[in-house]
Structures are given as C-alpha cells and as structure tokens.
Amino acid sequence: MRVFVDCDPGIDDALALAYLTARPNVEIVGIGAVFGNNSVDVTTDNALRLMELYGRSGVPVARGASRPLVQPPHLAELVHGANGLGDVETPAPASAPVEESAAELLVRLARSAPGEIDVLAVGPLTNLAVALSLEPELPKLVRRVVVMGGAVRAPGNVTPWAEANTSNDPEAAEVVFAAGFDLTLVALDITMKTVATGAWLDELKTVEGERAQTTSAFLDFYVGWYSNVFGVRQCAMHDPLAAAILLDPEIVTTSVDVPIRVELKGEHTRGLTIADMRPDAASHADDRPKITLVQEVDGEAFLKRMMDALR
Ligand code: BDR
Ligand code: CA
C-alpha cells in the first residue's frame, strides 16, 4: 500500500504517523506539511523529526501552505504545545524538506502512479485544494482519500459548530469535498467517541523503547488539554483513527454515503460541515459527489492496534 500523508503535526498527527510506520507493507511515498496546529515551518520540521523517530527517515517531506486560501491562520499551541509536539524535545532532523511544495509533490506522485496512491489528510485541506488547482484530474489519479475533519452531528471544537481542520480552511475543505474523490470522512462525531483512556495511557507508559516513550511524553501534554474537555483523564484519537480506517477499513462498523458541504458564509456557522442526513435524501436531486461518513467503529480493535503500533 502506498500512502501520501498531508498533516500538521501535531500530537495526534504523530500518532497517525506511528500507526502507518508500524506496518512494513505501508510505503509512505511522501508527506505534505500544512499550517494548522502550528506554523508550516514548525509542522514541516516536526514531520521530519517524526519520520526519524518512527524509523522512516528517507521519506520525502514537503512544506505546504502557510495560510488558508482566504482567512488568516489560527494555530493550536494550547492543545499541542509551543513546538507542536507537547514541548517534548526530540533530536533535530538530519534531513531537510524537498524543494517541491506539498501540492507539487502530491501531484507528481499521483501522476507517476495513477490509481495506486492513497491519501491520508489530517490537517486543514489547503494543500489538497492547491493540488486540485494544479491537477483537476487528481480525483481520478489517486485511489482513495481519508480525511479527518468536520463535525456533522457532534459539536465543533474550534467554534460551537466547526471542527478545527475544516474551520481552519473552509474554502479548501469545500473544494475537496466537491471534487469527486473516493473520500471517507472521519469527523468529530466518531473521533470524540474514540478515546485513549487513562488505563490505555498507563499501559503505554510501560512499553519500552524510544518510539513508545517519546509518543507517551507527547500524549502527557495533549491529555492535559483533553482532560479539561472531557472532565476525566482521556484524549480523543482524531488523526490516528483516520489512519486506521485507511489501513484497516474493517474497523468501520457503520457508515453512510451522503453529500457533504461546508458552510462558508454563516456568521456563527462558518466551517460547519452539513451532510444531507434526511432519510429520503436519495429522492432529492443533488449532483454533489457523495462522501462516506464514518458513523461507528470498533474502538477496542483500533486502540489495540494503536498500542501494537507503538510497541
Ligand atoms: C484535528 O485538529 C487538529 O488539532 C488535530 O491534529 C486534528 O487533525 C481535530 O479537530
Ligand atoms: Ca492534525
């Protein structure tokens, strides 16, 4: 399996990369970094650091968008730390980013292997939107896209309505959702219910090795934020759940194929993801491509595989 990862690491982005890199049969063909949890300079540097930590130092990492298509950027240092990785020190990367931008790298890789590359997008969708402007046929060139983003029935996490990745670049998300990719959306609806519990976090602390221990240190910071959100010591597994759904689609137990749009104008609802969930949706004319919205997963199977990936 060949995967291009677009991300804004970010502590849960790091977990997604840990999940992918634990599988010898998964080739990460490239990583695009994007602003989001931190500036694009920091997220690019973190992607390089994480590839070294997780034993894939040869993977090309490309710097992507430094800001959304329209609005100013909004970063998340309170959730992910001033350095994007929970203020945990990791060795400075030995390698540098490639010369191409993230969008250019994705387009070149997709053209060179039509129908073979899957995309995991776990940051704002700006790089994918730019890639579509460079290559409108991209939805036919990549095999499948799994996106972490949006909140369909759940509350948002940046505003009462909007999730961070869609809220950070609503115009880009709207372009990507309309483009006709074979796209699976892993929204807050399911990621906020798929949590690493205190017991899971304690078990991780007993796993020996740099891979597990450094990731556990990242999580110490992240769980500090999420403990306030949930009122108990646990954290949401947003991005690694999307990685697992890409690699192990059988963990999805319920999903629905629906048109999904992004609100671009609302005074209070900008960035909101709107899915047509009417029971008779199919009888309403709508030429919008359908997106597979994940509704239920086998959370225990996922958490076990996540732990195995860190061993
Ligand atoms: C998403 O926003 C980011 O902060 C996380 O890395 C994740 O991709 C969750 O809303
Ligand atoms: Ca992310």
TrEMBL record:
Keyword flag Membrane: no
InterPro entries membership: Inosine/uridine_hydrolase_dom, IUNH, Ribo_hydro-like
Coiled coil: none
Domain Inosine/uridine-preferring nucleoside hydrolase stretches: 3-303
Record's keyword terms, sorted: Glycosidase, Hydrolase
Tree of life domain: Bacteria
GO terms of molecular function: hydrolase activity
Keyword Ubl conjugation set for record: no
Name this protein carries in UniProt: Nucleoside hydrolase
Species for this entry: Nocardiopsis rhodophaea
Biological classification of the source: Bacteria, Bacillati, Actinomycetota, Actinomycetes, Streptosporangiales
